[in-house]
Amino acid sequence: MNRRKFLGATATVTAAAGVSLLPGNAAAAGDGLPALVRRYLDQAVAAGSPSVVCGVVRGRRTYVEGAGAAAGRSAPDGRTVFQLGSITKTLTATALARAAGTGEARLDAPLVLPAGFPVPRKGSRRITLAHLATHTSGLPSLPPNLLPGADPYDPYAHYTLDDLAAGLRVTELGTEPGAVHAYSNLGFGLLGQALAFDDVDSMLRHRVAEPLGMVDTTTTLRPDMASRKVVGHLEGEPVPDWHDRVLSAAGTSMYSTADDMVRFLRAQLRPASSPLRDAIEVTQRPRFTVDRNLRLGLGWHLSRLPGGSTMTWHNGGTGGFSTCAAFSRERGVAVVMMVNTFSEETPTAARPVDALTFRLLGELGAA
Predict the structure, then answer these.
(1) What was the pLDDT predicted at 116?
(2) Cα angle vertex 255, ends 280, 301, to 5°?
(3) 209: alpha, beta or left, given left = phi > 0 and alpha = psi -120 to 50?
(4) For residue 197, which of 208, 205, 189 has the smallest C-alpha distance?
(5) The pLDDT of residue 88
C-alpha cells in the first residue's frame, strides 16, 4: 500500500463524485425500508466489512440497522462507535459558519494564526477562511514534515503544535489561493486552529455536536463509548484507532455513531427545524465550481443527481474505518454508512462504502 496515500486516508473524496447515482433494479417501494437497507448491509459485508451500520432518513421517517460478518456476535446498531474520518470537516465548516453568523469571524478574512505559526503565501492573494473550507487555499494535503517519524498505524499521534509551526515555515503553496481546488487535510486542520487554537475538539463539541444532540461525536473516547466501539481493520487485520490533537478539525481522530449522524443529516435536510439553521444554510451554499459534476460548499461536496436535483455529500476514513454521508434536500432523503475497515478507491472504482451510499440514496429518492 502506498504509505502517503494511507496516511492521507481522510483525503479520499473527489473521485467518488463519478459513482453512478442511478437507482438499482429492485423495487424499493415494494420492499419496504428495512428490506432495502438490509440488502445494502449484505452488500457491504460481502465487500469485506467486518461490521457495518447504515442510517437512512426518508421524509419524516428514520431507520438505522447494522450487520456483522462474524457468526454468533451481536450485530452493531445505531449506538455502535466508529471513527468518522473526513465527514468531520462538515462539522468544522458548520462551526466556521456559526462564527461568521455571530461576527466572531468573516469568511473572507485572511487566515491568522498565533505568533510563530507563519501562514504560507503565493502571489498577491492571502489564504482566507473560506479558501480553507473549500479546499482552494493552495495548501498541500499534508504537512511536509508529517511523514518522517510517523507510525503508519497511528500517523498523526506524534505531531505536535511545535511540529506544525516548523512545518508551516517550509510549506509552499501549489497554487495561488482561490484559484484551484486541491483537497487538503492541512487546510482544514489550520481552519480548526484558527477558530479555536489548541482547543479544537472542545469547540466542535460545544458549537456543533451538543446543539444537535450528537452525544457520541467527540475525539475523547469515554469509557461507555469504548465499550460500544468496534475495532478497525486494515486488509483483514485489526489496527489501532488514529489519535490527533493538532489537525483533528480535518477528521483525523473523531468518533461518532450512526444515530448521531442521522441527527446531523436530519438537520441538513430541514435546517429550519434546527438550532443551527443559519449556519447549515451557509455551509450548503455553492461557492466554488470544480467541474460540471462537482461544486463545493463550506465542507460539503455537491453533485448533480439524475433529474437535476442535488446530492450533498462527504466521505471519510481513518486507518481502520470508512464512512460516507449523503443527502438530497429536494428528495427529502439521506444516508450514512459506516464500516470498520480501511478501503481505498481505484482508478476504475470508488470505495464500496461510497458506491453503496450513493446508490441507496438514489433508490430512496426514486421510491
Answers:
(1) 97
(2) 40
(3) alpha
(4) 189
(5) 98
